Amino acid sequence: MVQMELPDIDLDGRVVILTGADRGLGRAMSLGLASKGARLVLASPAVDGLKAVAAEIGDIAGPGHALAVETDITDLESCENCLRAAVGAFGTLHVLVNNARRLRRDPGKPEQAGHLPFWECDAELYRQTVEVNVAGTFFMSRTVAPYFVELGYGKIINLSTSVRNFYSEHQSPYGVTKAAIDSSTYIWARDLMDKGVTVNALLPGGACDNGDPNRPPAPERDLLPADIMNPVLVWLCSARADGATGWRYNGSLWDAAADPDVAAAGCREEASIRGAGQPAG
Predict the structure, then answer these.
(1) C-alpha span between 152 and 135 (Å, rounded)
(2) Chain-centre distance of CA 166, in angstroms?
(3) Each residue's pLDDT tens digit, 181-206
């Protein structure tokens, strides 16, 4: 259930591909966008999960608002099929949300299993994490970018993480891959400058209560709601964000009492990890 108060922004007619949409943060973001009128292309290898989320969207927004597309983002042909399915079903595409990621640990393992010194990390897990989080995000973005350029309009939103995970102990390989996503965001934003296509990073701002059954109970731990990013995501997917590119947006900084444009500006993380010449917007 969506709990965050969403801005008064209508996304009717907007078409969004959202990867990793079958559970957790991806499910929460999908439901939030659908509640504002967006059409969702739900992408993941987990077809049953996608169908369940599509059914939830049907209950929220009515029929015709969600399409489940089995997608492996590490396979370029599968990414291209996802784009074809989106355009075929809805006639166009406006936004790609790169949410899919390889977790820090293997399925079924407790959370602490993903926090190890780098030399103790499983080599295969490291390789898979880089392939999914870095190469997979690139494959999806490489697929949609030419379409957006030809259209003269589009938005790429890459899910990132808190900067502390880029340098804290026991954050390899996850922090390594998310640092690469930030770098990709800034490079792609410049590559697409003046083409009508924006690229931004979005992060929760902390650990989220995303229903992970392998996270041990910790009553003293203040987890963010799974839909913490929904308000700023709705803004990013809208025409109000057309001038913003090359930024990191922190969902936990959203001020629901402020005008959406002011609230979004307040979510920008100002710490410079890009160097000089930040794009305006």
Answers:
(1) 25
(2) 18
(3) 999 999 999 999 999 999 999 999 88
* pTM, two decimal places: 0.90
Q: What angle do CA 83, 177, 187 make, to 5 degrees?
A: 65
Helix, coil or strand: residue 155: strand
Q: Max CA-CA distance within the chain? A: 51
DSSP letter (8 states) at residue 121? S
User: Which fold, 15-211+219-266?
Assistant: Rossmann fold (3.40.50)
Where b means 16+ CB within 10 Å and e means fewer, 16-39 reads bbbbbbbbbbbbbbbbbbbbbebb
Q: Which tokens is 272 given?
A: 């410079």
Per-residue pLDDT tens over the stretch 55-110: 999 999 999 999 999 999 999 999 999 999 999 999 999 999 999 987 655 555 54
Token pair recorded at residue 196: 């009508």
Question: What letter would DSSP give residue 142?
Answer: H
Sign of the torsion formed by the C-alpha atoms of 265, 197, 65 and 86: negative
Partners of 202 in the β-ladder: 159, 249
